[in-house]
Amino acid sequence: MSVMTTTAGIQRFWRRSILEPLTIIWRNKRAFAGFLILLFFFLMATVGPEVIPLDMKSRYAERFQPPSRAHVLGTDYAGRDVWALIVHGSRDVLFVAFLAALFTIAIGVTVGMLAGLRGGMTDTLLMILTNAILTVPSFPVMLIIGSVLEVRNAITFGAVLSIWAWGGLARATRSQVLSLKEREFIEAARVLGLGTFHIIFKELLPNIMPYVTISFLTTMRGAITASVGLMLLGLMPFSAKNWGMMMNMAMMQSGAIYLPYALSYVLAPMGAIVLLQLGAVFFASGLDEVLDPRLRAT
Amino acid sequence: MITIAKRVGVALITIFLIATLTFFLVRKTPGDVMQAWAMDIVETYSMTYEDALAFVKSMYSYDPDQPVLEQYIAYISGLLRGDLGQSFIYKVSVNEVIAQALPWTVFVTSISLLLSFGIGMLLGMIIAWKRKTILDPIVTAYASFTGATPDYVTALVLLIIFSINLHIFPLKGAYDAVVPVGFTWPFIKSVLWHAALPITAYTFESAAGWALAMKGSAVSVLGEDYIMAARARGLKEGRIMTRYMGRNALLPMITGLAIALGSMVGGSVLIETIFAYPGIGWFFGEALIKRDFGMLQGLFLFLATAVIFANLAADLLYTRLDPRIKLEG
Predict the structure, then answer these.
(1) Which chain A residues are within 8 Å of B300, Cβ to Cβ?
(2) ipTM above 0.85, yes or no
């Protein structure tokens, strides 16, 4: 009996959580294209570095080569293969963005929940803070924090990227909590004497999960743009393989942007960012539909 | 009246908090920065460490051994007098740098803001009015593309195409050094020529976003009775589109202006660095690279204050223009 319910459970999980979302994504061509692009970058960041070797040794005789059979995207200022650099850099870019999104969501949801549930003075103070975060442009703040803290690893970098990025999420979580708070099922949980802990994790969180999932993707996009921008300015040089570092070397250090035959080296990291971002934009449009049944057309 | 005072109060408190925060953030480190710089000098000029540190301290225009509270009080009372502080490295005040750089930033961002706003409003109005034309999917695709492209990538691509390879626009600066400064045609032409690429970069990045926002707003207005009444009165299409739909859809866009200004100011560090355009963003980037924290905190506080007041102004203006909206809180 129990075996049967387990298999039924697995089947239901398979159908609800994997098959149905995939079908919806498959039907929406834009979202499917986005899904393929993201899958490509995911594989690039996870398996890519194991499959494609990167030789960091300098060979000045082979510098700034145009694309060829040996070097699909040409070579950089030290004769290294640009394609291999892009592949190895993707792991860095995505990992930092993933951490940044994780931190941002954690802070934003906590602040929003606190403000929404507690109300009163807590709410007022947290919302003043949130408004300050939302009005003051985040990029200069990240630049200052990044230059003050010595960023040496992905975790601190992720923290720098998230510290001024959670405002929108906190405000949206708060307004969702405020509207959910008045609904019957929360009222029922209260009357049943279920604790705040239960109400937050079992009642509120599942209801704001769709929004949080979409936000995760948007936050990661923002973190990618910001992290590469910070590196472009030559800040936080903790990894030589990051795309932003490649752009910094191409633009400010090696003078590659002035060399017509080094064009593939200059354009490769930019193309990678734009393609990755485009994939995320397309995929998000389909994800909306997966998570919000009201958007599904018949 | 009370709500306005409250808003202004919150804005002032925010500015004060930002000032305090940056002060302590920045004050935490110069010691390390000085030591790092001194080590640099030791390595390059083979000085003793003590000599190098003394040299670095003399280069920095403040004394890190003074008690922090004293420094903080001096800084805040300076701010109240409108003094944004000193550069740690050069013998200039932040105010002087702002006086020199601000006109360029204001010039470029205000033109970009107006241009992208105008183009966006027009496009948004047209695609809301005439759906099922080819323009709608084009604008949507353009919006996805610019949404995916960071502003600095757009700026770099423009620089590579038009300055480096085609030699149409200059590589750096705000005007030609050989043209005498003055209200003359050659000077104005030179200024416009140098500003062309930064303006294009900002405008290209934000026009599509405006168009989509305007389309959304305009579509929601389309169902209103006054549109139908205007149709029934037999008014010309163009007149209904611009005067009846456009004007009413325009209102909610005004709060967006402050947000757009904020993102332009935030992006200006990279854009102005890429085009070597001597505005606030460029000086900010320079101060970052040189770790000139005195300059950095002054410039940042100035930018933050400007954006906070722009938001406040947009809020107040919006409530003035639309009597249905009341300020909350």
Answers:
(1) 140-141, 144
(2) no
